[in-house]
Amino acid sequence: MINDFPQVLTIAGSDSDGSAGLQADLHTFFIRNTYGMSVLVAAVAGNSYGIHAAETLPLEFIEKQFEVLADDFHIRASKTGMLSDDKLIETVVKAYQKYNFGPLVVDPVITTKHGAQLLKESAFKALKEQLLPLATVATPNFFEAQLLTGRVIDSEQQQVAAAKDIQALGVQNVIVKGWHNQENQNEVADYVLLADGTEFWLRHPYFITTHINGTGDTLSATIAAEISKGQDIATAIRIAHDITTTAIAHEIAVGHKFGPINHWAAQTYKQKEDN
After folding, report:
1. Band of residue 49 on the pLDDT scale cut at 50, 70, 90
2. Of 97, 146, 219, 265, whose CB is crowded by the most CB atoms within 10 A?
3. Which CDD domains does UniProt cross-reference here (predicted)?
């Protein structure tokens, strides 16, 4: 039957080295046996050393991508990545509200993994007040959770409190990712708070590696992919945690400096799970 196969959408920028952004999302959709589509919002010229140039696409073109996808496909879940300014966020919010593209997973890309803020205040305000209230699931990292809540997260109790604060913004389900600190750390603890009040921790070893590009993209993209296949939110999040951890644990030799995680290793996880 037409459009029976699970289809999932990423609303994100292109990362030219393939390690993050739209490319990491599409890698993830593929290994989770879903058909990935994209609304391209920006393009980055980057490699493992860093980002060297970036351009945002015209808003009218972004709107057109939403329109033509809605005319043809049955998109069952969507996710957002880096949305760099307030006008772009407003455009995405209006388009998502106009078309039925399924539950939305918001990866609120506000900071780097090391805490450097990426968004100007106007974009941060738009993300917090306009985009996050649309989220079925939000996946902030440690630093993003601090910025969104104004909390200093220095304990698991504060991590729990931050998740509740983010849920109060209108987000249904929240996963607050734990702190990554290369000194004297053996474990990372991610906290999950569901819409019905269910809560649980997901813990995994801390891996000392420079190949972590695309970690947040892969986590959020897996959640969206699993939702598109009909998984409940808790199961989707657990699978996403395992997929992402597997991809980090098996380093891939790509790039001189900050490289990608290993989606092939995560695909092996898929084969073990499904077989």
Report:
1. confident
2. 219
3. HMPP_kinase
Q: Which one-letter amino acid corresponds to residue 59?
A: L
CA 163 to CA 172: how far, in whole Å?
Answer: 11
Instruction: Enumerate domains of the chain plus CATH numbers.
Output: 7-268 (3.40.1190.20)
Query: What is the per-residue pLDDT across 134-160, written as a single tens digit (0 to 9) for each?
Result: 999 999 999 999 999 999 999 999 999
Query: How far is Cα 270 from Cα 34, in angstroms, rounded to an integer?
Result: 12
d(CA 100, CA 231): 19
Burial of 130 (0-12, 13-18, 19+ CB in 10 A): middle
pLDDT of residue 114: 55
Q: Check if the beta carbon of residue 105 is closer than 8 Å to that of residue 137.
A: yes
- The tokens describing 12, both together, are 């994100």
Query: Which residue shows structure tokens 């989707």?
Result: 236
Give 188-244 pLDDT, tens digit per residue: 999 999 999 999 999 999 988 899 999 999 999 999 999 999 999 999 999 999 999
pTM, 2 dp: 0.95
